[in-house]
Amino acid sequence: ACEPRFLHILVIAGPAGKSDLGLAITKRYRYDNHVTDTAEIDVLVVGAGPTGLTLACALRLHGLSVRVIDRADGPATTSRANFLHARGSEVLGRIGALGTLPEESLRAMRITNYLGGEPLMTLEFGDPGLGTAAPPMVVSQARVEAALRGRCSELGPVPEWGRALVGVRQD
Fold first, then answer.
1. Does the CA dihedral 43-44-47-53 come out positive or negative?
2. Which of 87, 116, 121, 141 registers the highest number of CB atoms within 10 A of its CB?
3. pTM for the predicted model, two decimal places
4. Which candidate, 76, 104, 89, places its Cα nearest to that of 14?
5. What is the β-pairing status of strands 43-46 and 5-13?
6. From CA 29, how far away is CA 6, in angstroms rounded?
7. Would you say 20 and 46 are in contact if contact means Cβ atoms under 8 Å apart?
8. pLDDT tens, 28-81?
9. What is the DSSP letter of 9?
């Protein structure tokens, strides 16, 4: 019989339990080697959306071994968001995943919302004159995730699609 061992599992859970963004929870769990094919890893990230991929990259950059699984059959091809705020750009830059997104995106300094053809509200972002963080980018979430998957691949963990976490047991 295989000896049980411990690892950290980070569950990335979004709205309605979807595992693509949201809250990261870490606990120390035990798993039995004969139940799973998990190799010697430090952290299992459950959810290969933007939060899980960002977390996986950051953990690898800190020297931890990581495995990423997602219950979806493959990466999203449609966008659930179209805006990357300045802080998100900073984080992607720090982990080396920003890549060509700034060149591929539109920079949003001012967005005006219309209702019935009439301007309803105008939102302004950032102040380029102060040299602060980059303004938000209008870019597909699917494109952001692709950049994150590319960076993850460079660092080691490649998301495993069609793999769901079906249970854990805490000792």
1. positive
2. 141
3. 0.72
4. 76
5. parallel
6. 6
7. no
8. 444 433 334 445 788 888 899 999 999 999 999 999 989 999 999 999 888 788
9. E
